[in-house]
Amino acid sequence: MCGIFGYAGEAPEGCVARMGAALRHRGPDGEGSFTAAPFAAGMTRLAILDPDGGRQPFRSEDGRIQVVCNGEIYNWRELRAELQAAGHAFHTGCDCEVLPHAWEEWGPGMFPRLNGMFALALHDAHQERFILARDRYGQKPLYHARHGEALMFASEIRALAAAGLPPQFAPHHLRSYLTLRYVPEPETLFDGIRILPAGHWMELRAGDPAAGIVHRWHEDAPPVPFSGTPDEAVEELDALLRAAIPRALQSDVPVAVYLSGGVDSSLLAEAIRETGAAPRTFSLALPGPADESAAAEEWARELEFPFTRVECGPDALLDLPRVVAQMEVPVGDALIVAFDRLAAAASSVGCKVALGGEGADELFGGYSFQRLLRTAGRLGALGRPAAAAALQVLPAGALDRLSPFPAGLGSSGRRKVVEYLRGFGRATPWWRGVALRTLFTPAEAGALLDPAFARDHPHREPAFDASRGLLDGHWRDQFRGWMQDWSLIRQERNGMAHSLEFRAPFLDHPLADFAACLPPDWKLRRGGKWIWRRLAAKRLPAAIAHRPKHPFYFPLEAFAASPPFRDLVHDHLSEDRLRRRALFDPAAVQNLVHRAFRSREFLPLKQVAALLILDLWFDTFASP
After folding, report:
1. How many CB atoms lie within 10 A of CB 415?
2. Residue 220 dihedral angles phi and psi, to the nearest 5°
3. What domains does the chain contain, in order, with CATH numbers?
4. pLDDT of res. 396
5. Is it the case that residue 408 has pLDDT exceeding 60?
6. Whole-angstrom distance between the N-terminal and C-terminal Cα of the chain?
7. What are phi and psi of 455, to 5 degrees?
């Protein structure tokens, strides 16, 4: 919906205007701000609801509570009716107008009532408090940093830089990036710049305006297990989906839908048709077996939705430097250029909102690493070595058929799974769950790094709570890091670069809360998403509902011989350049590059792409 920014404390003169200018792409339709010394906040607006009347900041009746917000409050109509009954007056048809009145009625208790995605800044003159807050799933970002005597905040880091905060590399977080392909919140790869965690709010007071106190508002309480039958669960999921879709479609401007041909986006599109809407659909056309655009087009034709195929061939990698710059925080996957192309295509025909199927895999067990974690635990101390031995002698073709990726596992992937099974019993609870979705193991990362750097920056595991069981702990960990830091940010940042708001209807709170109550076995059995596929079987043609799941991934193996990819790698991962960076062992990286291009295997190519993205990030933001 927009970009927000501001400060608490003593800030450089004119910084609010400079921060707003840096976020104009997020909100080209207007701007607004307020100052209540020592606090100030502003926004750039992407007009979606009530384009003429929904200007921010929004204020309470007496003007003493002021809010700027980025995002959408999907249940604003219900909240508005409740607040009107309590005597509050409203003057626009904009969702965020409920916020100052909700704060006046409920204070921080308003946050659990908000069904939506948001990052907001609020000033309460009654209590001399300044509040920053972020939605429960972290769909909207909110960065902050100390700068002199002020705490600066913004939707994007470029606004902090515009205020005079020089971006600098945080070497102590490099290992996190190499292992996970992202840096888990609340940290970033920028030194001193953090992100407010999902489901948290920060309180600042006039007496010490730059010293924020962070509170959790979304409690991580154990869900009450669902006690019904699978058929009853499907009926409830159906009802919750029917309720979620109209909320996600709320807009006074054109809406797009990203359609992949898989179960999630097909189910989303079918539920949209049920509302009577007929939005434009957009599907990526990728080289080789990763391409599902033909199936997506067939389904769009069946639904009578306009369809656009978005070509994403080897030339897309020429956009990688620009896309890394607009992402700001590095995400080690070349797929970011594909999301950029989708957003550009939707925006080019006037769409300001795009809906996609993100969240379904996290909610319903769609990832292979979720299933393998459970399988490894069930195999036991005797079964895991036997399974590892069997994998070693299984013919390559048969093993590749077990892989969820069309390109197959290859020898590198085989070795990764074998080592995982062999080391499962000795591994820490955290590593058992993340090992199969990591890019480099800690040992592999250490071998790539310059020896002095590796010694000064050893591997450190993050805190991990397995008190409710290993599988439950990792399921929760996905919602506290993987989903927002890896999945959602790719859509959010690429969308907003093109003035396009991305929405994930499957993260509608009642739907997501119910999914959390379902037994893990209902999600993981028979290849994953068993209960979700039962809903799909009720709503979709059998050919779609039972289509094997293929991960949405960037087929680097198809681009390995293309000049764009090879030239970028040659330029950015050369021995001379690596030596100047003084972070990596040039010979080790060169060996990896040669192995990746020689084998064209899935895993080494992804590793090379992540190192390439990192070097592009250094070029743009913070060279070491």
Report:
1. 14
2. -95, 55
3. 2-170+186-216 (3.60.20.10), 230-549 (3.40.50.620)
4. 59
5. no
6. 34
7. -65, -40
Q: In angstroms, rounded to a whole number, what is the distance separating the alpha carbons of residues 482 and 182?
A: 9
Dist. CA 225–CA 507, nearest whole Å = 19
Q: Where are the beta strands (DSSP E) in 231-289?
A: 255-258, 280-285
- How far apart, in Å, are the Cα atoms of 145 and each of 188, 193, 477? 11, 5, 25
CA distance 144 to 131: 13
The conformation of residue 193, written as its DSSP 8-state character, comes to -
| Cα 62 versus chain centre, distance | 38
- Distance from C-alpha of 26 to C-alpha of 328, rounded to nearest angstrom: 14
- Torsion 534-535-541-546 (CA) sign: negative
CA distance 297 to 302: 9
Residues 97-138 have pLDDT tens digits of 999 999 999 999 999 999 999 999 999 999 999 999 999 999
User: Dihedrals φ, ψ of 145, to 5°?
Assistant: -160, 150
Token match 């600042």: residue? 204
Q: At what angle do helices 230-248 and 263-274 cross, to 10 degrees?
A: 70
Which amino acid type is present at position 420?
A: Y
Q: Residue 47, Cβ neighbours under 10 Å: how many?
A: 20
- Give the helix, strand, coil percentages of the chain, each rounded to 5: 50, 15, 35
Contacts of 348 by beta carbon, 8 Å cutoff, 6+ apart: none
Cα separation, 142 vs 154, in Å, equals: 6
Contact in structure between 496 and 503 (CB atoms under 8 Å): no
pLDDT at 406: 47
In the numeric block, the tokens 């003593």 are attached to 10
Element (H, E) at 304: none
Q: How confident is the model over 47-52, as a mean pLDDT? A: 92
61 vs 80, 495, 536, CA distance in Å? Answer: 14, 34, 47
**DSSP character for 483?**
I
- Cα 404 to the center of its chain, rounded Å: 21
Q: Which of 454, 437, 484 shows the shortest CA–CA distance to 606?
A: 437
Query: How far, rounded to the nearest angstrom, does the alpha carbon of residue 526 sit from its chain's CA centroid?
Result: 27
Radius of gyration for the alpha carbons in the chain, expressed in angstroms and rounded: 24
What would the two tokens of residue 77 be?
Answer: 């109509």
How far does CA 565 lie from the centroid of its chain? 25
Place of tokens 């300044």: 130
Alpha carbon distance 277, 181 (integer Å): 37
Angle at 89 between CA 73 and CA 41, to 5 degrees: 55
Contact 567, 380 (CB under 8 A): no
pLDDT over 70 percentage in the chain: 97
C-alpha 543: how far from chain center: 29
Q: Which helix (H) or strand (E) holds 152?
A: strand 150-154
Q: What is the DSSP string of 505-546?
A: GGG-HHHHHHHHHS-HHHHHSTTS-HHHHHHHHHHS-HHHHT
